[in-house]
Amino acid sequence: MLKEMLENVRLRTPLIHNITNYVTVNDCANILIACGASPIMSDELAEVEEITTICNALNINIGTLNSHTIPSMLAAGKKARSLSHHVLLDPVGAGASKLRTNTALRILDEVKPSAVRGNISEIKALAMGEGSTKGVDADVADTVTDDTLEQSIGFVKSFAAKTGAVVAVTGAIDIVTDGNRTFVIRNGHPMLSRITGSGCMLSAMTAAYLAANPETPLEATAAAVCAMGLCGEKAQERLTDCDGNSTFRDYLIDEIYNLSGDALEAGAKYELR
Amino acid sequence: MLKEMLENVRLRTPLIHNITNYVTVNDCANILIACGASPIMSDELAEVEEITTICNALNINIGTLNSHTIPSMLAAGKKARSLSHHVLLDPVGAGASKLRTNTALRILDEVKPSAVRGNISEIKALAMGEGSTKGVDADVADTVTDDTLEQSIGFVKSFAAKTGAVVAVTGAIDIVTDGNRTFVIRNGHPMLSRITGSGCMLSAMTAAYLAANPETPLEATAAAVCAMGLCGEKAQERLTDCDGNSTFRDYLIDEIYNLSGDALEAGAKYELR
Amino acid sequence: MLKEMLENVRLRTPLIHNITNYVTVNDCANILIACGASPIMSDELAEVEEITTICNALNINIGTLNSHTIPSMLAAGKKARSLSHHVLLDPVGAGASKLRTNTALRILDEVKPSAVRGNISEIKALAMGEGSTKGVDADVADTVTDDTLEQSIGFVKSFAAKTGAVVAVTGAIDIVTDGNRTFVIRNGHPMLSRITGSGCMLSAMTAAYLAANPETPLEATAAAVCAMGLCGEKAQERLTDCDGNSTFRDYLIDEIYNLSGDALEAGAKYELR
């Protein structure tokens, strides 16, 4: 099943419109190509509706939102949804400023994205309207562990039900749910948190998986999350003692580039609840 | 001849002003250094004329154009031309939105750049005022092949004659022409299309070659195109089974860094028509 | 002493607010993580005061300043100083345009940053209100050599005394001074000038060292400068004949990632005057 999700991306080469931050935008473009999709970045209000019309899905990432890109996010998002395109929201740093929390809430309300991916602190900030996000990283107090897993699943399921979106909360244990069925995913490696952009790259790639598998958004999202975690493991195995986080970033994208459907199926560690 | 073009860049270390997109800007800066030039990025209207005055050429790339940078492109472009600096236009995504097509046409009209580099779909969009660009990549239907080569050369030559610019259309086969003489270049490797920014990097590097060889813009542009294609071949040869597009990007810039004039002369595959 | 500076960064994992250019922002984020800190980038006026409040230090880099980010730099800078956070200014390209020189002078005047890091031409432009910066690189005529060292130290000390900041002038020989005591540092390698962003990365990392060592800003800055220079040496040693500046960039960040306090103490080459 995961295999099919991946192979459809390579088969259909979806074009993904990204309104994203300038920190990790290059990595997002390269990982989209690596997974088989094609990226375009555009955040100018005068063209975003036209651009998103020729694309297959939209990835909205608020990592460096500003007064000019927020209207573009809303306009592109509404246009994409009106065309029945999948729209993914990555609420980077929700909880770290009122502007971020409120912008993410406004996008949820006005655009009704079909998928949301964030860390647990960001999703809590959106669910509760407040938060203790440590900048753009999850607060340690929020970490999903085996002890807090049941409670976390319940929380994420209710957020998914409330928003109507597939919600992916990623961290040491990943939770992907549509409010009914839930994937609990245990792929990944701590090195993924030692680079900037692993979350942003996953969001961009998830948009590609959604575009290529429009009828099965839960499975598409779960496949993208497993793929990123698995490639994080594989990239870490390639590291020598001299290597650090910069080489890890290159290897991570390389592993996504080389990942086959069979390797994903074999390496994915998940349970469906 | 190509050798001299390359060596002049290393000898004269031209300073290149870039108004470019935020997706591939870091790669553009590093490849400019790699080829022997020095980059500066500035897109603020209040300083672009002053910045371009101290530079030796200007590279305008509309990849993430917006309402604030478009006036900067026009102002810097006019100032640079008034100083007889070479100006290169990379019309990224022309054909994908009216804003992109119209902005590129306006720059052609008001700035009169001395060089234009794009893929075949972008150049068709500018020549015909419409297009079927697939986002920022060329449409498959437009691909230059041996079967369509004669026709494509004729088309690009007439666009060069009309604009007064050296025009480089890059793809599987590259066409570089000033409207009279035409280089048909067969360097390169499909991996160049599996990273973001190979076109942007080539445009930035071409601006450096033009700045260092101001009297021979056709040969300078052809040399830059051959250099990028050849280094793509060399970078691909270094890849192991584990490597993917991220490592390829690093190797590509590394190869430009290490490329000698003799190696360029020996490896270039072109015919002059 | 340097060892303690480095280890405090890893121990305290300071959160660093960056208002920085879009050219090297990804490298700045990754090197902040590599050295043990956590990055957040935000340049929107509506949130920068709130963002800087939850951070431990602010890094202001004017490399691609514009009319929207300049007010954000001033507002965030004043807020950070009012909270007694360290603020570092990197006056990229001061001397290359009036806008850059004047903005940097205005930040010095209104924010009163606790640290300034630049090349010798940039600092001269600020001290003298004019300059001959070659774009974003130092003018060769300004280079600090053994012959000009005494004179340069005197100049940098008087700039430090006048601004009240710890000033780091980096180049072939680095000078770090608070106006009284001066570190003369001889770590580094010319390869550091063959990539974009080595200065920007050092500025970001210095902000992290300042945040983790708030009571000893001179030593913290000197430690960051030594760390960057030493890691430049180590990265260069790893290069093979095929490698160039792109691989060097990765190795540089990797070396920062792996650098221990003991290795810094052993490899640092400095004298205290």
Word description of this protein:
The structure is a homotrimer of 273-residue chains. The first copy, chain A, is α/β, with parallel strands linked by helices. Chain A has one domain: UDP-N-acetylmuramoyl-L-alanine:D-glutamate ligase (3-Layer(aba) Sandwich), CATH 3.40.1190. Chain A has 11 helices and 9 strands. Chain A has helices at 2-12, 25-35, 45-54, 69-82, 98-111, 120-128, 149-163, 198-212, 217-238, 245-258, 261-267, and strands spanning 15-19, 38-41, 57-61, 86-90, 115-118, 166-169, 174-177, 182-185, 270-272. Chain A has a 9-stranded mixed beta sheet with strand order 2-1-3-4-5-6-7-8-9, sandwiched between helices. In chain A, β3, α4 (69-82) and β4 form a beta-alpha-beta unit. In chain A, α4 (69-82) packs parallel to α5. The two termini of chain A are 16 Å apart. The mean pLDDT of chain A is 96. Chains in contact: A-B, A-C, B-C. The A-B interface holds A 15, 22, 25-26, 29-30, 33-34, 38-47, 50-51, 54-55, 68, 238, 249-258 and B 21-24, 26-27, 63-68, 93, 96-100, 134-137, 194-197, 241-247, 249-250.
What would the keywords be for this entry?
homotrimer; 273 residues; alpha/beta; UDP-N-acetylmuramoyl-L-alanine:D-glutamate ligase; nine-stranded mixed β-sheet
Question: How would you summarize what this structure contains?
Answer:
Chain A has helices spanning 2-12, 25-35, 45-54, 69-82, 98-111, 120-128, 149-163, 198-212, 217-238, 245-258, 261-267, and strands at 15-19, 38-41, 57-61, 86-90, 115-118, 166-169, 174-177, 182-185, 270-272.
Q: Cα-atom Rg of chain A, whole angstroms? A: 17 Å
Query: How many alpha or pi helices of chain A?
Result: 11
Distance from N terminus to C terminus of chain A (CA atoms, Å) equals 16 Å
CATH topological fold name of chain A: UDP-N-acetylmuramoyl-L-alanine:D-glutamate ligase
Oligomer: homotrimer
Count of separate structural domains of chain A:
1
Overall number of strands of chain A:
9
User: Percent helix among the residues of chain A?
Assistant: 40-55%
Q: Give the uncertain stretches of chain A in residue-range form.
A: none
